[in-house]
Amino acid sequence: METPRYLIILWRSKWLLLVGLVVATLGGLLAGFTLVDGQVVPRSEQAYRASTTVLVTSQTQPMYQAVIPGQEVVEGQTLATDVDLTQKAILYAYMVSGLEMRDGVADQIGQLSDTEDLTALRRTTQPGGDESFPGRYVLPIIDVVGASTDPDRAEQISATATDLFLTQVAAEQEAAGIPEAERVVMSVLDESGAVAEEGSNPMIPVLVTFLGIFLLFVAAAFLIAGAKGSRERKRAARDAAAIDEDEPVDESPTESPRMRRGRSSALPPDPVERADDREPTTVG
């Protein structure tokens, strides 16, 4: 079986590729790591996320009640209507992610840096699901999420925001004079510790830089091979032209019968001896 041409080119350029391998390794290490106080530390910082899960319920729809009892209807008064808390959960998520809540968290634990964030989202998956790939559930559950390069700081942001939000909800209900039986009830279901986010691995820039530099050397190997092949073809064409010029050329082509007849007719006739030029004959 014939060896593919690209493998032949790569094998002939093995020394160039070896140099590229060394340069790509050094470039990847420089892109991913740096020296700080004599220690090698990654350039990209690992990000962490911590979340607190909050359940939104009401007094009229308790978690463990299967049947809602009937109510006495008063003439001239409509029946009470339960609010769809699954839709309100979206509004609560926006409130937690808002500027007012962010300022309240900063007042308690310090100003949030550029690498820190506070957000909230309504759950649409089962407990082990990832909200980056939403499910089909519509749940009255929100996650209060804190993000930071420091895992302890991420947990602090999430817990502080949750406490502030629950306190704010209770204060707003009290200020509005909402009866106890009609108030929204919020309870914390879970407080997850900080987990490392995907995509912030310090090895990712190392691999990306390594592959980018090495592929440049591979491309250079093919370009050099193409240039050499082009020069060899041009040299072969010049050598062939020079050989054709050195060969003797027969400039007398083969004559056809017509050409020979024409040339013989063009020649002058043979001279004829005249009678006066003949010698006299001696008579006995």
Describe the structure.
The protein is α+β, with helices and mostly antiparallel strands and 284 residues long. Among the domains are: 1-43, no CATH class; 48-62 and 81-196, EIF_2_alpha (Alpha-Beta Plaits, 2-Layer Sandwich). The chain has 7 helices and 6 strands. It has helices spanning 5-12, 14-32, 85-97, 99-109, 151-176, 203-246, 257-266, and strands at 33-36, 39-42, 48-58, 117-122, 141-148, 184-196. The protein has a 4-stranded antiparallel beta sheet with strand order 4-5-3-6. A two-stranded antiparallel ribbon has the order 1-2. It is elongated.
Widest beta sheet: strand line-up: 4-5-3-6
Cα end-to-end separation: 106 Å
Shape-level CATH architecture of the domain at 48-62 and 81-196: 2-Layer Sandwich
Task: Please provide the count of β strands.
Answer: 6
How would you sum up the global shape?
elongated
What characterizes the major β-sheet? 4 strands, antiparallel
Search tags:
46% helix, two-stranded antiparallel sheet, 4-stranded antiparallel β-sheet, 284 residues, 6 strands, alpha+beta, Alpha-Beta Plaits
Q: Quick summary of this structure?
A:
The chain is of the alpha+beta class and 284 residues long. Among the domains are: 1-43, no CATH class; 48-62 and 81-196, 2-Layer Sandwich (Alpha-Beta Plaits), CATH 3.30.70.
Set out the fold topology.
Elements: H1 5-12, H2 14-32, E1 33-36, E2 39-42, E3 48-58, H3 85-97, H4 99-109, E4 117-122, E5 141-148, H5 151-176, E6 184-196, H6 203-246, H7 257-266
Antiparallel strand pairs: 1-2, 3-5, 3-6, 4-5
